[in-house]
Design a protein that fits this description.
By secondary structure, this protein is of the alpha+beta class. It contains 2 helices and 4 strands. It starts with 15 loop residues before the first helix and ends with a strand.
Length: about 180
């Protein structure tokens, strides 16, 4: 019954332009609110994603630090092993030094066995013994070299220097590896 009757005076009725403006404002506020909700959800989602990325980055950083500590420990162990290997080489070099002394002793004995050949000097290195001799004649030198090269205990004999002096004769420097 009351659906078609308007008891309000027509003067109080709002103008059509104001009604249109109020509809536009309602739509603007509705779209503004929807945009605000969309923007707020986007910001919250972005913050959530960034916080997850930050947590993963922190976890990777902790893992990397742990890995670095493990690698440093391994490096220290490898350094100690290398140091021990160097010490083992030094200990085995003592045996090598004894071998070099044996080479020099053998060369000295060969110089005593041949007339005209004198032992003039020696130098020991890690794997090589250097021997210097003086020979008064080429025959004495050839006999010494024949006896030395005939010894099959040596791996390698190198002639380092051969000098001739009228007063001393031949001076020969050899490197011998046993």
């Amino acid at each position: 019954m009351a659906g078609g009757i308007n008891l309000l005076p027509q003067d109080i009725k709002p103008k059509v332009s104001i009604l249109k403006l109020s509809k536009k404002l309602k739509r603007f506020i509705l779209f503004g609110f929807m945009f605000f909700v969309f923007l707020a959800s986007t910001v919250v989602g972005t913050l959530f994603i960034l916080s997850n990325n930050l947590k993963r980055s922190i976890a990777r950083q902790v893992a990397a630090k742990t890995e670095i500590k493990n690698l440093e420990a391994t490096e220290q162990k490898l350094f100690l092993i290398r140091d021990r290997l160097d010490k083992i080489k030094q200990i085995t070099a003592v045996k090598t030094a004894q071998d070099q002394i044996n080479i020099l002793e053998d060369a000295l004995n060969q110089t005593k066995a041949i007339d005209g050949v004198d032992f003039s000097g020696a130098e020991l290195q890690q794997t090589v013994a250097k021997v210097s001799i003086n020979a008064g004649s080429s025959i004495a030198l050839s006999n010494f070299l024949y006896n030395l090269y005939g010894n099959e205990d040596y791996k390698r004999i190198n002639l380092l220097a051969l000098k001739y002096n009228v007063d001393l004769g031949y001076t020969v420097t050899l490197s011998i590896v046993e």
